[in-house]
Design a protein that fits this description.
- By secondary structure, the protein is α+β, with helices and mostly antiparallel strands.
- It is about 35% helix and about 15% strand.
- It folds into two domains: about 130 residues, Creatinase/prolidase N-terminal domain (Creatine Amidinohydrolase, Chain A, domain 1, 3-Layer(aba) Sandwich); about 290 residues, Creatinase/methionine aminopeptidase superfamily (Creatine Amidinohydrolase), CATH 3.90.230.10.
- α7 crosses α8 and α9 packs antiparallel against α10.
- The longest helix is centred in the middle third of the chain and has 24 residues.
Length: about 425
């Protein structure tokens, strides 16, 4: 309300989405609404009246039939106690309330669901969705102690689930069996929602960044990339580990893995308030390019490999992203956005601030669609030794990811690396015991 004092503010929560027939998708609350209200029920709305300094929660009116089939939903008195709003009313009274209040305002801020649902009572020319979303991104970027605690708890549960997957993965299993181990551990801990569908990628599948099939066979000699995280009250965790399906890394797997791990640890060590996120990403590109040069897969000046984007053939994503109520949170609002100091595109360019939570997730991949692209082969013929890189097709990829809280001094790792190990010796010892 301090940021948007001249307008009435309406934020609608999520509605249940039909899957098929009379079956709905599992409901997960809209993140902006969850940030403002804390309520995880469907069909709720928040109305903020800056002039009167008043907040109202509008809840769904539930009939007896709903209670028979779906059970109890908090009523007005319970919602007032649970969520702390000045007023709580039923949602069917919201149009009348809007008509009564809008005369005092020249502008109406609404999220997009609210703008659609209440178009009849919110004049189109005075509606502003973008300013509201930008203000919410600005607020959500810096996490409170309570928000950080939720992320950390989700990360601890996810780390235990990663360890369980490392312990139970076997040659001859299917990827979805490992997924069942991870997802089941999170559910057993009381976290029914995952932050995103689990990525369980064995062998060559690990070269698909957002692999989703999760049905291939695990083979001894391959590696398994597991990118997965639970959420608590909407707050996400996002952890990736890559480990051998057998007892140990091969010499080649160890070499690639070591380059990625050294890059991740060096990037984590650099984290501090004031660091430009673009500089951090370019630092990771340089380290990975140096590693591939040491393997004989790239050649030439390291700065040139970065500036020409040749390294993107093996590292096509960013070093990380902000995380909170969305696993890929926004970029902190337009007020934080800085000019990109580099000639190639970088998605997130801002100075890191205390309270930011972001992932650090370098990776190296051997992707056929990139390495066999005729245009890229022509463009990077002096930078990439394609004849040698071709031998890695089928290798897959390595990604290592943790969640970090920016604070004064060293960043705090919210991922329990002791529970979900990432050092080669620790992973091999765990796999040796698991397969004994």
């Amino acid at each position: 309300m301090r940021r948007l004092p001249e307008g009435l503010i309406l934020v609608s929560g999520g509605a249940e989405a039909l899957r098929n027939g009379d079956v709905s998708h599992p409901f997960r609350q809209d993140s902006d609404f969850l940030y403002l209200a804390g309520a995880e029920e469907a069909g709720f709305h928040v109305l903020l009246d800056p002039k009167r300094r008043q907040s109202t929660l509008f809840i769904a009116r539930i009939d007896a039939g709903h209670k028979v089939w779906e059970g109890k939903v908090p009523d007005i008195a319970e919602c007032r106690r649970l969520y702390g709003f000045d007023r709580v009313s039923y949602a069917d009274s919201l149009p009348r309330r809007l008509k009564g209040l809008r005369r005092g305002y020249r502008r109406f801020y609404a999220n997009r669901p609210a703008s659609r649902n209440y178009s009849a009572v919110l004049p189109f020319k005075k509606r502003d969705c973008d300013s509201l979303l930008d203000a919410l991104q600005e607020l959500r970027a810096v996490k409170s102690a309570a928000e950080t605690a939720s992320i950390r708890k989700a990360g601890q549960v996810s780390a235990r689930a990663h360890r369980a997957a490392m312990e139970k993965a076997r040659p001859g299993m299917r990827e979805y069996e490992v997924q069942a181990v991870f997802d089941g551990e999170c559910l057993r801990a009381g976290l029914p929602h995952l932050a995103f569908p689990s990525i369980v990628a064995a062998g060559a599948n690990a070269a698909v960044l957002h692999y989703r099939r999760n049905d291939a066979l695990l083979k001894s000699g391959d590696m398994l990339l597991l990118d997965a995280g639970a959420e608590l009250h909407g707050y996400a965790s996002d952890i990736t580990r890559t480990f051998p399906v057998g007892r140990r890394f091969s010499a080649l797997q160890r070499e690639v893995y070591s380059i990625v791990l050294d890059t991740q640890k060096a990037c984590i060590a650099k984290l501090k308030p004031g660091l430009n996120s673009a500089d951090l990403h370019v630092f990771s590109m340089r380290m990975l390019a140096e590693g591939l040069k040491s393997m004989g897969l790239m050649t030439g000046d390291t700065d040139g490999l970065v500036e020409s984007e040749a390294i993107r053939l093996f590292y096509p994503h960013g070093i990380g992203h902000l995380m909170g109520l969305d696993v890929h949170d926004g970029t902190g609002g337009s007020g934080r956005k800085l000019p990109n100091p580099f000639k190639f595109p970088i998605r997130f360019v801002a100075k890191l601030e205390p309270g930011f939570v972001l992932t650090i997730e370098p990776g190296l991949y051997f992707i056929e669609a990139l390495l066999n692209d005729p245009k890229k082969r022509a463009k990077y013929r002096t930078s990439v030794r394609f004849s040698k890189a071709e031998r890695f097709l089928g290798f897959g990829g390595v990604r290592i990811e943790d969640d970090l809280l920016i604070r004064e001094g060293a960043a705090l790792n919210l991922t329990d690396s002791r529970t979900a190990p990432k050092e080669i010796s620790e992973i091999e010892e765990l796999r040796r015991r698991a397969l004994a």
